[in-house]
From TrEMBL, chains A, B:
Annotated source species: Neonectria punicea
Pfam families tied to this protein: AAA_26, Aminotran_3
Protein name: Dethiobiotin synthase
Keyword presence, DNA repair: no
Transmembrane segments: none
Subcellular location field: Mitochondrion
Keyword Magnesium part of the UniProt annotation: no
UniProt cross-references to PROSITE patterns, sorted A to Z: AA_TRANSFER_CLASS_3 (PS00600)
Length: 802, 802
């Protein structure tokens, strides 16, 4: 079931006719457009498509066209006899109701066939108004959005029609449609067209054209037919109609030209993030026309595969395999998020946040504080992205430590972390990471801290293996093997065993050595469970948990002088040892299947950073949460002791409203059991030591992934190319055997990436992915369905075997 | 002319009735609501308000109400006899057409009177559909938005009515309206209510209620009246109607309760930017209900002023005097920006940007490259805010210098800048600023550079004075005086005079000293014209220009060893000396009246940073533009030589589309001469040496401000409190005589801030402002009208004299 993509051919101009209301003359004006197009482009084929028709067949729109537009190729795809809204007609009929996907696929197939036959025009006529429900009850404006056909909006010329036309336009616009023409009857009483011409011209540069109204119905059918025929004959010659068609044709050409020129223009004028521009070519730059659900609609650059298909669809859907740099959760162009953004923009715009509060910021703060279920956290600070949020976190933590331990301003403080950590690209966030490819050449980078080695987890030949790097084997042994990933996460149970004692001893010994070297630390900072940009490294959760525990009981290793009043372990919410900062920018908010990744470790951080999925994949926003005991360090009578950090758009209303919608939607998905199907695919099984939980408990106890256990098992046996694999939540990461160079500089994953981009099923199933050296990963959205993931698994298995 | 604010009283519940279409039963259902409310709340007053009515008076809606809802207080504000859309009726009538402001003010006055009379309900009935034009041609949904009344949407029960109802809802929603109830007739054939109940319930949690349809019209008027009376009698008892009213009442209470509880909740759970939280109290936190145009709608916390006004309007408009931290340009809740954001969200969501291109990013890049008219700039890099954009800029510049001069990785590079510069709050951006209050206590801050003293400009007692700090007087003299600010900006002319020679010599001498100390620099980085966060410091433009020129001709002072192939001055677009970085985040994109602030200096930087107004004040986005000669330094066969900086939401489509709309709108305003009225208010005058230019040339040659020259002159003579003042573009900055503490820690401006917040005209004219120590500033939007600015001037003059 390949996705249905947008429609764009060079020689076939495809347009969708929407009505501002029912009974505004859609069919009549479409008939005129068909006739006029036939006259102007005499050698080309003009087609009319009615995807869904209701009412008696002999009164149907296609019959009208057959009679009055005889040169037009006419087709209706689905027809119900009852003259009412398609959803109502379908409901009471015995005919099977097509799913949205089936309907779209049939339209796509039909129009593709037309396109193969050569140049021409195709007008797709919708039913009723823009939001009239289709057979499946999805309203048309949502239903047809993936096709992204340019729109001819038939305006309403009746009393009240100005309002109907503008509202219909707005419903189209906020779903990313391009309305290219507004066409309506030249009705002389209300003259709506006069107002609408000014309105659409001034605000949107869209021209409004009019056609004379049809003759009133005559009771004698023969006379009626004759007068209509005459009307059609005259109106198809109207200059306004010709103008509309010529303009549509021009915009069609310029849309294609623009898509085709953009890569070369971008090559000249864009400086890309994380890109060696010397290796860039215009051909490597993907022109994205639009995106819908899990897919980009990208400009097809492959030549036609055979001479029998002279005109290929210029757009093709590509699965967004990096979830657009790990941000996507609720699908591209999700109307709920769009409406949320628009509502906040319309209610507030952006309002300055210092010493002010507005509903969406308050509600997001409340959702996070409740959702994280971390009794330590009580304060929410807003910033713009994960990098700024991590800078805020480290500023918070270092100050808290300095105040507690009485260090003066000149004492140089570092952080404790893990090798391969990455917290963002601003200098302060870079300084939290050990020297690596990402930062080693950045002029002002200066790693400030100490980063531990640690054991990692991968599935290898069906076993979940805890690997210990050679450097640590003498300290903590040779690692362990588990039957399931759930067993790896049984940190309570594993904490009783010998490995935990060894981890403790190793960490404690290292901290003592650092103390003897006179080094000072102000925070423990980690990405819980998975180190993302560092190469999708799955850290043994027992190690991270132990790290936190050892740091928390080791105040004596951090204090310079004995501290007078160290908080007791009994007060759960006061930080001890060092403030513990979790960077959950990537791992949190359901990316790994749970609201918070800290729950995998059974640890409550003192500071927690959240971004990316926070806004479901729409706009940048970040929150840094902190405990009162961290916050207290900034309270004084001196303004300059405050956290003097703030961005102009702090807590911008649009971002907060979108975040609120995203968080609530993901929580609702969990509660509705949307992910239960994934959990049954091998993740919750008798051989796991984790009990099967009810959906509501899932967040705290189940380990699951959108990727099936059987698939993980299969590719983990592909030892010729794969050295290990893991899947958690929506993330799959495959470590490929390297080709010499290691890590980020390796190109081992590039051929796999290229193969998936080329695609399967004649390219219809293809994947746009990003790689991290020899690590290949795919991240689906939180809304990606089971069928799609299983198909992706098939595609990946095939690509790995190639 | 105080602004018209939103309507919210504790005891009077105020609702607006919108129709999904004309002829959907708005008046009938409003009549039922009135009758039902009168029955349930027997002791309270129920009111009906028709702001605009068309058609013969004896058929008007208010007559209908008078007959069928006799217990209701009824009022119509504007009436035209012709039964058509208000804009059309008004156009052909001889009655004066009220402006939107007049209409809103009249509504506000009328409802305020009602509120003073005690508890009750008021239903305001609109005309036609949501987008039906009002008398001034503004459609109602925009016209009434500032009132922010909760909405009862009357659904359309006819064929096609599902679409009409949903589209009307979306038009309301994207203007920030809260639709609290959908009400429609229980029509038995199409049963739209069934579908709509599911739709609004599932997607928005809004309940849809139905009322039986009215009897069909009887030809005998007496019988007709009787059957209608009976219908009203029965329907006002319908449970559904009671449920609607009870729910509206509940939501009314909870809206107020939420607004009132938010400050205390925020006080507990929000960590504010740039705020000493110890000094915060719940009372100091402003609850912002919404914002419109130049105004916040904030919760009124003052007690009622007298016992005769028991119920005050809980909301009051406050002028957003900091332009929401310098971001606002096109007004809060600008529908054009909302639609732009929604369109991009609907077309793309966010799409990953590495090696990809989409239309809004391409178009923004093109607009900036053309608009800046800087032949050096050829590359656009996207990030999320001014701070990240400045980090990108400094990374670019330092690398370029290092590669050119052959310094190794260990060579410590600083920047050259000005004292009081500020480039953002991330560590790397902080490191670009000299030690100051903002950064001195930040643990990882380490100022990396050398910052020059410089002469500053202010208007004092009517003269534009170039002040030289004492430390520089022996070097560059005692400063100068000019008759107009335009003369200060005559940098070409002034460059011929002695002052310029002295500036050169001082800068050159200082650079030589730094070279002898062995210090290495990789960039010259400045905010052109105005240093913002540093205290709204107006730097002598001749000094900044000279600084750039000296640096550019002084390669020999920066190179460690003689450089083999120094680019010649002849190649305009290659950086020489050091890459020159202009941080125009605050000063650019029309904030000072021109597309680029660099035009004031007649200098083309090699790197230029733009944010804030870039998106007109809606969502965060930043662009860093660079020259090819800077870009080249990153080209190599090693991926790790690339600029490894990138945020997940890089070039997010929503931000880019909003930026494009904002830039085009501001360019169009300039071309349309929207700001010409400001330019005549003393800025372009015979005594200025600057010639009067045509609007199209204005960007390059005219110095102007929204603040009138007469006003600046007046307050510059207020020497008891004011030590100096300046105005440029939309910014006004007043330096107040200090009360002891200086700079950021001074509280000299606090009393002025408090006075303006309290307001004038019984608080209706009040200003929300931010201060920078002893500097008081107000920044209007680019769309703020001349009348409003002149009124602000009056308010400020009064406040300064108090």
């Amino acid at each position: 079931m390949p996705p249905v993509g947008a429609l764009l051919w060079r020689a076939l101009r495809v347009h969708q006719v929407y009505g501002a209301n029912t009974d505004v003359g859609k069919t009549i004006l479409t008939t005129i457009l068909c006739n006029s197009a036939s006259k102007i482009w005499k050698d080309e084929q003009v087609s009319y498509l009615k995807p869904v028709s209701t009412g008696p067949q002999d009164e149907a729109d296609d019959r009208h066209l057959e009679y009055y537009a005889p040169n037009t190729n006419i087709e209706t795809l689905f027809q119900w006899d009852i003259p009412t809204s398609p959803h109502a007609a379908a409901e009471v009929s015995s005919k099977p109701i097509p799913t949205d996907h089936e309907l779209l696929a049939k339209i796509h197939h039909h129009i593709s066939q037309r396109a193969h036959q050569g140049s021409g025009w195709l007008f797709l006529e919708t039913a009723g108004g823009v939001h009239s429900p289709g057979p499946s009850r999805t309203t048309q404006v949502d239903l047809y959005a993936p096709l992204r056909m340019p729109v001819i909006l038939i305006g309403d010329s009746k009393l009240g029609g100005i309002s109907q036309t503008v509202s219909a336009f707005e419903s189209l616009r906020l779903r990313g449609y391009d309305v290219e023409s507004v066409l309506l009857f030249r009705e002389p009483v209300h003259e709506n067209y006069r107002y609408l011409a000014d309105y659409f011209g001034d605000k949107y540069g869209i021209s409004v054209e009019t056609v004379g109204a049809p003759p009133t119905r005559h009771e004698n059918p023969r006379i009626d037919r004759e007068s209509m025929a005459e009307y059609y004959n005259e109106s198809s010659e109207e200059k306004a109609v010709h103008d509309v068609l010529l303009q549509l044709d021009k915009r069609h050409q310029s849309r294609i030209a623009r898509l085709e020129e953009m890569p070369a223009k971008a090559y000249q004028s864009i400086w890309y993030p994380f890109t060696q521009q010397k290796h860039l070519t215009p051909e490597r730059i993907t022109a994205i026309d639009s995106a819908y659900g899990d897919h980009f609609q990208t400009l097809q650059t492959r030549p036609p595969t055979s001479s029998t298909s002279p005109d290929i669809n210029l757009l093709r859907p590509s699965f967004d395999g990096s979830a657009s740099w790990w941000t996507q959760g609720l699908g591209h162009a999700n109307p709920k998020l769009t409406l949320a953004a628009a509502y906040a923009a319309g209610r507030y715009g952006h309002v300055m946040f210092a010493e002010a509060i507005h509903e969406p910021a308050m509600a997001v703060a409340e959702n996070l504080l409740q959702g994280l279920q971390n009794p330590r956290l009580s304060r929410v600070f807003f910033s713009d992205n994960g990098s700024t949020g991590c800078e805020v976190a480290v500023k918070m933590a270092l100050r808290a430590a300095r105040v507690r331990y009485g260090w003066d301003q000149d004492t140089k403080l570092g952080i404790l972390g893990l090798k391969g950590s990455y917290h963002g690209d601003t200098i302060g966030a870079m300084d939290c990471a050990e020297p690596c490819t990402f930062n080693e050449k950045v002029e002002w980078y200066e790693g400030k801290g100490f980063w531990f080695d640690y054991p990692t987890v991968q599935c290898k030949e069906g076993k979940w293996v805890v690997d210990v790097p050679d450097s640590l084997k003498s300290d903590i042994g040779n690692g362990e093997e588990f039957a399931s990933v759930a067993d790896v996460f049984n940190v309570e149970g594993r904490n009783q065993a010998e490995a935990a004692r060894k981890y403790e001893a190793y960490i404690e010994r290292t901290l003592e050595t650092l103390q003897k070297q006179g080094r000072k630390f102000g925070a423990l900072m980690m990405e819980p469970v998975i180190l993302g940009a560092g190469g999708m490294i799955f850290v043994d959760p027992l190690f991270q948990r132990t790290f936190v525990n050892v740091v928390r009981r080791s105040s004596y290793l951090f204090a310079t002088t004995p501290i007078s009043s160290s908080p007791s372990q009994a007060d759960d919410n006061t930080w001890i040892g060092l403030p513990v900062v979790f960077d959950e920018v990537f791992t949190g908010l359901y990316r790994l299947g749970r609201y918070t990744a800290s729950s995998f470790l059974g640890v409550h951080p003192d500071v927690s950073v959240h971004a990316k999925l926070l806004t479901g994949g729409l706009v940048p926003l970040c929150t840094t949460l902190a405990s009162d005991s961290v916050h207290e360090a900034f309270l004084s009578d001196d303004k300059s002791d405050a956290l003097l950090h703030g961005h102009s758009y702090t807590a911008h209303a649009v971002g907060c409203q979108v975040a609120l919608e995203s968080l609530q939607e993901m929580q609702s998905m969990e509660n509705r059991g949307v992910w239960d199907a994934f959990k049954t695919d091998g993740w919750v099984s008798p051989d796991s030591s984790t009990p099967v939980a009810t959906p509501r408990d899932a967040n705290d106890s189940i380990v699951w992934s959108a990727w099936s256990r059987a698939f993980i098992d299969t590719i983990s046996h592909h030892t010729a190319r794969v050295s290990g694999v893991w899947a958690l939540g929506s993330v799959l990461a495959v470590t490929l055997r390297s080709d010499g160079a290691t890590g980020y500089k390796s190109s081992a994953a590039l051929s796999l990436q290229a193969r998936l981009r080329e695609g399967y099923e004649d390219g219809r199933w293809n994947v746009h992915s990003r790689v991290l050296g020899n690590v290949f990963y795919i991240m689906v959205g939180q809304t990606t369905g089971r069928t799609a993931v299983r198909e992706l698994e098939g595609v990946l298995t095939e690509a790995l075997s190639a």
